[in-house]
Amino acid sequence: MEKNVFGEPIKVCCSSPMTGYFRDGLCRTISQDTGTHTVCAVITDEFLKFSASKGNDLITPVHFYQFPGLKEGDRWCLCVTRWIEAEKAGKAPKIILEATHEKTLEYTSLDLLVQYAHKD
């Protein structure tokens, strides 16, 4: 059973658009996932611009990878290192902690993640 940062069963991040390394809605990972897509983020325009400036265009659809392109308000499983990079630059989006995989805690602290908790 995959767990979130609280050690509870992980919740679905988003199914429209379908997200996750496995495109199953969950921010879970395996060793072949070199990006470690474990952070369930609520996407902002500011983050999309930041990511594009780092060479990762998340706006333009790429049908080969079943990637719809993102817009503000979408929920998406981000690479943990990109989220940390954005956080250090003051551009990190809020996150859904219940849908963020526990592996994220190998990269950053729960205290930091809680500061970015999305409130519905």
Description:
There is one protein chain. With 120 residues, the protein is an alpha+beta fold. It has a single domain, classed as Protein of unknown function DUF2237 (Phenylalanyl-tRNA Synthetase, Chain B, domain 1, 2-Layer Sandwich). It has helices spanning 45-53, 80-88, 110-115, and strands at residues 37-42, 75-79. It has a two-stranded antiparallel ribbon with strand order 1-2. It is globular and about 35 Å long. The mean pLDDT is 95.
Write the layout of secondary structure elements.
Elements: E1 37-42, H1 45-53, E2 75-79, H2 80-88, H3 110-115
Précis, in short:
By secondary structure, the chain is of the alpha+beta class.
User: Which series of helices and strands comes N to C?
Assistant: EHEHH
Can you summarize the main beta sheet?
Answer: 2 strands, antiparallel
Q: Structural class per helix/strand content?
A: alpha+beta
CATH architecture: 2-Layer Sandwich
What's the helix count? 3
CATH topology: Phenylalanyl-tRNA Synthetase, Chain B, domain 1
Question: Strand share of the residues?
Answer: 5-15%
CATH class: Alpha Beta
| Mean pLDDT across every amino acid position | 95
**Strand numbers in spatial order across the main sheet:** 1-2
Instruction: Sum up the overall morphology in one term.
Output: globular
CATH superfamily descriptor? Protein of unknown function DUF2237
